[in-house]
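Here is a complete protein record:
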Amino acid sequence: MNRVPIETFKNKITTEIISSLNKILTLLKTRYKKVKELKNEMELTTAEIFCMKATVNKIMAIVHEEMQEHYSKTQFVSRNEKESQTNDKMKEQLNSQIKSLENHLENQKKELLLREKWLQEREEKLIQKEKDFLKLQSTKEKYTYRINKWQNELKSKYNSSPERALKTKRLSEIKEENKN
């Protein structure tokens, strides 16, 4: 029966464990990079939402001004039938424009709410991924500490074993005999 020396066995186990830990570390690093990329993308989307909100507010202000102009014009219009007909037509046009703008604004508000919800979900996922990354990193550190501890224990057991002492004694006896 062939026996593998303890040092060879320890070295083999140590290299396998270290390579496994290195693989885990590279996976963690790639995941962390992806998390950072998603976070940057989320910040860009948030900026887009704020721009859309500003646009919606500007449109609302324009609609409000047009409505005020329309009402101020209608107050000073003469009672002439032609003018009243044109005013009615203008009123209808303005009302239709206002309705279409209000519909557009409502659609944009809905879209903004959906995007905000999506961003919140994405942010929660990113936070969870960061927590998972930190847990994995702490687990890796624990296992690295344990491996180093086991290696030190194995070395001390091997160096302090009676078999080792006998082998050392026998080698010194053989050296003495060879000198003589």
